[in-house]
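Notebook B, p. 112. Complex prediction, attempt 2.
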Amino acid sequence: MRLWVYIIRRLLLLIPTLIGLTFIVFILSHVSGTNVILSEYISPKLTGAARQILVQQLTNQFHLNQPIYIQYFYWLWQILQGNWGVTNTPIFSGQVNTAIALFLPNTLMISIVASILIWVIGVPLGVYSAVNRDSPADHSLRIGSFTLYAMPIYLIGIVLILLVGVYLKILPFSGVVNPVSVSSASWYVNGISYPTHIILIDAIIHGAWGIASDAFLHLILPSVTLALAIVASMIRILRSSMLEVLDQDYIRLARSKGISERSVINLHARKNALLPVITLFGYTVAGLLGGAVVVETIFNYPGIGYWTTQALLVSDIGGIMSAALLFGLILMFANLIVDIVYALVDPRIRY
Amino acid sequence: MSEAELKTRKWENTRLSLSVFFANKAAVIGLIIVMAYVVDALLVQFAPQAIGIHSPGTLVENFYNTVPSPPSLAHPFGTTYPGVDLFTSMVKAVRIDLFYSVLVVAIGAAVGSIVGVVSANVGGLMDEIVMRITDVFFSIPYLILALAVGFILGRSLLNMSIALAIVWWPLYARYTRSQTLSTKEFTFVEAAKASGVSRLKIMYKHILPNALPPVFIQISLDLGSIMVIFSTLAFIGFIENASIPELGYLSSLGLNYIQTAPWTVIFPGVAITLFALAVNLVGDGLRDVMDPRRRS
């Protein structure tokens, strides 16, 4: 099969998954019986004629007088047009779109830093552990990753907060920036920084190096927590995949040809052992998104995850469902990229 | 082969499996820890008075000062927020965590393995549809999906486990399906087919007994991860303010005192880690037993 045929097939497979995802979210918002759209858009304080007018308007917009399976398509149409509803949480109330624009950049920021850490720490340690199999270093690495793997993310975060934040007092562990330091910045209004909404990048754009370094310090602990939560399984999987590759005939051949052990590992073995790791990328994204919910909550870090738990605490359906939809979409496209990259790297997959 | 000979063979096999498992010290330690948790849960369930617990279902026991006090002889793990002894609360919490984790695994396994076996045997369009449905479930991060489902069902422990089971069954369905499909390819199944055994009988007598045991072992090993996720959901606020002894919830109660009383958060967290670790160790031991290449 040609590569582009494979890619088109893979893209077509995306359609049923997308329909399924939106359908799950839609059904979830409607099983409770009461009309969610009305309760999401209309404040309970609103009464009388104004309420009636709004109800009428929403009924027309979402075709609420139609059967539910028809409502789904009207709802989907609104979602596709970018109308994701409203959210009402202590940290933000207003359009979901605005909430996503404010919070998603922060989540992306810690996710990117965390995934860099995961690859920088995980790949060398996994390879080292496999190459020096049964050495003391391998044993301690295995025990370490085994323990880390069993720990709930919040415990990792709390241990880091205690060690680095409370006892050593070298890193801050709450929020994105010290509020005092940004109080005079003109580009920081009501807790929102402009233009990218990521305070670290905004500070660099405006040349405020003091704020930038403070924001960077605030970024370290959440990212490290997120990375540690995922890196353990990365090391374990890479180790076993590397061991499997080292056992292959072509490695034995390379060794018997007299190629140095170093090039055997770096040229022949590592590349092949990294193949399964590509599929791990999708797994990493899933872990990052799920982990972000917990990490952002512990560190009061204003991202999508923090917004989700806030929405849970105040029973804000708009927030929870939009977060589920958003995270689902991100993961779906991450998996799409993984499949395409895998097909590029490993021609066997296309057949 | 005579009946008696078969019996001795079976016994030999079991003995070999046991000796392989018990040769792995880490697995044995894991097994002991898991048993300790089970005994704890059973004691709290059936004889709470015997270990000095009066109200196994709530945190309320004897009230002390609401400000946590450090570990001492009277309170080996200290006390925590609403003024309760942390050790007693954790003993009570293990029962609840274990019960609901088993519930999640049981519901997920029942639904998943039935769907997987049926899907592998019917095949065709139905198989394709089932796989696409599992795809959709895999495309939402499980924590978020569990949050959304549980939120709709209502925030309670039971609904939280139902939500987790709904998130988890596709995994088991896929695993059971692939096990069934690969068992179908074995020569002994072909031999049975060739000797004219009916399809249904092949299913029950030959495929299922060989395909399901590894599936169930895999599933029971998920107990550790499930408990971690269960407590994480409770920690981030899934349980509404209630006096429920649950390990994740216990951790979250101490969160406001973390700077002065770290033990209130650490001890319940360590209890979960220890359980997950022990289950994984047992799992490694069982894999040695199951894998003939590793038991030489």
